[in-house]
What we know:
CATH architecture: Up-down Bundle
CATH superfamily: Phosphatidic acid phosphatase type 2/haloperoxidase
Distance between the termini: 39 Å
CATH class: Mainly Alpha
Number of domains: 1
Radius of gyration: 17 Å
Amino acid sequence: xxxxxxxxxxxxxxxxxxxxxxxxxxxxxxxxxxxxxxxxxxxxxxxxxxxxxxxxxxxxxxxxxxxxxxxxxxxxxxxxxxxxxxxxxxxxxxxxxxxxxxxxxxxxxxxxxxxxxxxxxxxxxxxxxxxxxxxxxxxxxxxxxxxxxxxxxxxxxxxxxxxxxxxxxxxxxxxxxx
Length: 178
């Protein structure tokens, strides 16, 4: 897609390295395997009143892994930008697997949409964290913009699946903010 290449070329032309690269590396690694979101889930699990929300967050991450990594990525099999375009400067070790949709974007936004359903007053920092994690993948040339956009949409769908199907069985329906 034209927009994917235009954004990749724009990012490629930006000054790279230094403190920005270090910060982006922190965020991208926080999103690896959904570690930061799983850590939040563990934190929620320790409080009895938020334990049902933790179970729901873990379920959301499980839905994301199954749908994204075991189904969509192998089905679509889109190569990563650094594989397709020799111009793409890779600033991190090359990840394995396919690009579409972005797992970092999917997991981050699945967790964010899920968590914001309970903690609306924390929406800005939760979504900001999810966005920085997702955008860090563009910075490192391991995803196209469309991988990120579809990852955000997929994350919303994964969160809604859990919210709609597991709220009553997991016992967190009463915690949802209307």
